[in-house]
């Protein structure tokens, strides 16, 4: 790694860790992700627990809660502590409009989210976060892990010269990018929005790289060739730097809560022809500023 990359990692790992009084936290890697134990999400949470959870979410970006037995209402109630719930787009043909089923069958040729992305970045007010509750994992007892990447560090590991060039640019995110080569599902209203390419996190004010291959279409300040080349280079930042990432190996009844503003994630389809099932609830965010 270059010296400025090492320094960026050191700055992130040297950040002071807060103490949480109502549960235990074990980091997944020094830069992203933590397992939280000693809390039952099916119960009403106290103000102290919620204060600690909000702090841990901002500190670790991805929180993993194991051995949780949750109804859909309890799942939604927990999500509702962090913001307004976001209806699924397109609306599910039946069932709860806020619950997205993540279901892989023996016939699945692909799975949702099998590529680096954040949820809802084409919306004018992108999602704050998502909570995925996996209840069935592939039968051999492994596979189907989800990878997460810290987009603050992705920005900070870029060379100072490139960071200077990116600050002030914007990018257009288009819901149709994810469907290239496919017909969008009936009822899908493709959102399209322009966001700063380098965003400041609305709660911590830390800068982060805000482009992803699933939704980002172009950089309007550049020519089409320049935009394509720069975006392809930026899309490659996460896959080429494992240092940015953590991996969650699911066990049945695990809920993972991630921050869509500063985290990208990647579902791993390495378990064909086995099955996996879960339900995801998303939380509304606000407009993003540079
Ligand atoms: C997603 O939200 O992209 C799905 C993640 C997963 O299935 O692991």
What would you say this structure looks like, in words?
The chain has 290 residues and is α+β, with helices and mostly antiparallel strands. The chain has a single domain (3-283), classed as Double-stranded beta-helix, CATH 3.60.130.10. 20% of the residues lie in helices and 26% in strands. It contains six helices and 16 strands. A hairpin with a 6-residue loop joins strand 1 (24-27) and strand 2. The chain is globular and about 50 Å long. 39% of the residues are buried. The structure holds succinic acid (SIN). The site of succinic acid (SIN) has 10 residues, from strand 6 and strand 15. Succinic acid (SIN) binds at residues 102, 112-113, 119, 130, 132, 146, 265, 267, 280.
In brief:
This protein is an alpha+beta fold. The protein has helices spanning 3-13, 47-60, 72-80, 151-156, 160-166, 224-235; strands at residues 24-27, 34-37, 62-65, 85-86, 100-104, 129-136, 146-150, 170-174, 192-196, 198-200, 207-209, 216-218, 245-248, 254-259, 263-267, 276-283.
């Amino acid at each position: 790694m270059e010296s400025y990359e090492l320094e960026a990692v050191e700055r992130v790992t040297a950040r002071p860790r807060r103490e949480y009084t109502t549960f235990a936290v074990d980091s997944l890697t020094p830069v992203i992700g933590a397992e939280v134990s000693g809390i039952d999400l099916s119960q009403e949470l106290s103000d102290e627990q919620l204060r600690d959870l909000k702090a841990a979410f901002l500190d670790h970006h991805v929180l993993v809660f194991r051995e949780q037995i949750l109804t859909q209402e309890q799942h939604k109630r927990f999500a509702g502590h962090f913001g307004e719930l976001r209806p699924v787009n397109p609306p599910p043909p039946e069932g709860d409009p806020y619950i997205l089923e993540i279901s892989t069958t023996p016939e699945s040729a692909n799975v949702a989210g099998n590529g680096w992305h954040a949820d809802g970045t084409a919306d004018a007010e992108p999602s704050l976060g998502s909570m995925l509750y996996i209840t069935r994992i592939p039968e051999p007892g492994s596979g189907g892990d989800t990878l997460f990447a810290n987009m603050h560090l992705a920005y900070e590991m870029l060379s100072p010269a490139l960071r200077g060039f990116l600050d002030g640019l914007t990018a257009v995110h288009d819901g149709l990018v994810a469907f290239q080569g496919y017909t969008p599902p009936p009822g899908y209203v493709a959102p399209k929005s322009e966001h700063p390419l380098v965003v400041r996190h609305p709660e911590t004010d830390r800068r982060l790289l805000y482009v992803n291959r699933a939704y980002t279409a172009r950089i309007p300040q550049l020519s089409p060739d320049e935009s394509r080349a720069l975006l392809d280079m930026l899309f490659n930042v996460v896959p080429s730097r494992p240092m940015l990432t953590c991996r969650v190996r699911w066990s049945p009844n695990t809920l993972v809560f991630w921050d869509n503003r500063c985290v990208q994630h990647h579902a791993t389809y390495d378990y064909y022809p086995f099955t996996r099932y879960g339900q995801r609830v998303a939380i509304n965010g606000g407009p993003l500023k540079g």
